[in-house]
Write a structure and sequence with these properties.
41% helix, 3-stranded antiparallel β-sheet, BirA Bifunctional Protein, domain 2, 2 domains, alpha+beta, single chain, 424 residues
């Protein structure tokens, strides 16, 4: 959530920043709401001050034994007026909160300007794109050939865009999960956590999925306050909600493996075939909570941690800085890692690493205590996939496929997997 104090102080600067996103901030509505709040609050305070004075007069009158009935009648009228105005003010403050909650985060000054993903800025590439001496198959052909991806059973059990992984491919996914968690906990010093897959409205509001993106969520029928988590970012980041952390535990670094559930409303086309874009998929998620001064450094570190997984898997990838028109609602700055997909002859997103600065923390009331001032300050939160499992599986299948239809296993996974190949 935006800092209301800053919005009051520098509305034009905020309007200009949001325009870079393509978001038109309704300044007239904001001015109208804020003017109404000031007026109503001032009137209520004046009425309360008048009531306080009359209450003192009533006390003096009773002490002196004089008639205070007129004063008591006036006090009753004022009390009724204050209750009415307080109720109106409460309603207005809720309207202001709703208005502010629908406004996205401010973006950093160095975020590239652009309208969509075509304008994202490539920062670096890694790895050599394989030159096949045969026509490579896509992951769905390979999965069918190996009898390891069963989309039909997914449809039978649940519905479209759910998949069943069989045999060695299911084992490869488990191997990847263990490999990623080991690297992030043993080498990158993240603490592993296990969290609920169901989240409430407060958690989704805290990280910015609600109220704006409810259509992308799976809501439990008959359970108004429960949703399936769309990403581990939601339950893990909300571990900091309503907390005040001691400075000596910062930066707080958490890693978590969870399934994720997304309705993917409005997603059509090639990506809905196979396991590129499913309603249920797995992720290993990285979350950090840091002091404001460490926020920029933390984003670079977290991104390198996600990159390290791709490097060790020997998958070619690139890093792009998302442009102003492509960046997420809650993010101030985002780096996407995009892995090379041979069948599409292009890089595709496999991780988004974002700095939310204090946007989520303000919504969650997530704070830390500064020992030098003895005051509480808002945390800065960050997260990124380290990595998304279905797309990592897909990338390994396509990049490591052999002419006979088998899949070579990246060297770092062989001890986890127990073999150097998935045979046809």
């Amino acid at each position: 959530m935006l800092d209301v104090k800053r919005l009051k102080k520098d509305p034009e600067i905020i309007v200009d920043n949001l325009k870079r996103r393509g978001f038109e901030f309704d300044l007239d509505q904001w001015i109208s709401l804020e003017s109404a709040r000031k007026s109503l609050q001032s009137d209520t305070e004046n009425l309360q001050a008048e009531l306080n004075d009359i209450s003192k007069e009533i006390g003096i009158s009773k002490k002196e034994g004089t008639d205070s009935s007129k004063l008591e009648k006036k006090a009753g009228v004022l009390t009724s007026a204050i209750k009415s105005q307080s109720k109106e003010l409460t309603s207005l403050l809720k309207e202001i909160d709703s208005f502010i909650s629908s406004v996205p985060n401010l973006i950093d000054d160095d975020v590239p300007q652009g309208k969509d993903e075509e304008d994202n800025l490539e920062l670096r590439t890694y790895g050599k794109i394989r030159d096949f001496d045969f026509t490579p198959k896509d992951h769905l052909e390979l999965g069918s050939h190996l009898k390891s991806i069963d989309m039909e059973s997914g449809v039978k059990i649940t519905g479209a865009r759910f998949a069943v992984l069989n045999g060695e491919l299911a084992r490869l996914q488990r191997s990847l999960i263990n490999f990623m968690l080991d690297i992030h906990t043993k080498e990158h010093n993240y603490q592993e956590v296990y969290v609920p897959y169901l989240v409430n409205k407060e958690s989704l509001f805290g990280t910015g999925q609600l109220p704006k993106f409810e259509e992308d969520l799976f809501k439990l029928e008959g359970k108004e306050n429960f949703y399936l988590a769309s990403t581990a970012e939601v339950p893990v980041t909300n571990l900091f909600r309503d907390e005040i952390l001691n400075s000596d535990i910062l930066p707080a670094k958490l890693v978590c493996h969870t399934p994720c559930f997304r309705s993917e409303a409005g997603s059509y086309g090639l990506d809905t075939k196979g396991i590129m874009r499913l309603h249920q998929f797995e992720k290993v998620e990285l979350v950090q909570a840091v002091e404001e001064k460490d926020s920029d450094k933390a984003l670079e570190e977290l991104t390198r941690h996600a990159e390290e997984i791709l490097k060790r898997l020997e998958l070619p990838y690139r890093v792009v800085s998302l442009c102003s028109g492509d960046i997420g609602f809650s993010a101030a700055k985002t780096y996407d890692l995009e892995v090379w997909i041979p069948s599409q002859e292009r890089y595709r997103e496999i991780s988004s690493c974002s700095n939310f600065r204090d946007f989520q923390a303000r919504r969650m009331k997530a704070r830390w205590k500064n020992p030098s001032t003895n005051k509480t300050e808002l945390l800065n939160t960050l997260n990124g996939s380290g990595l998304a499992l279905s797309r990592t599986l897909l990338a390994i299948m396509e990049n490591f496929q052999q002419k006979d239809g088998s899949i070579a296993i990246p060297e770092v996974l062989r001890d986890y997997f127990g073999s150097d190949k998935i045979k046809h």
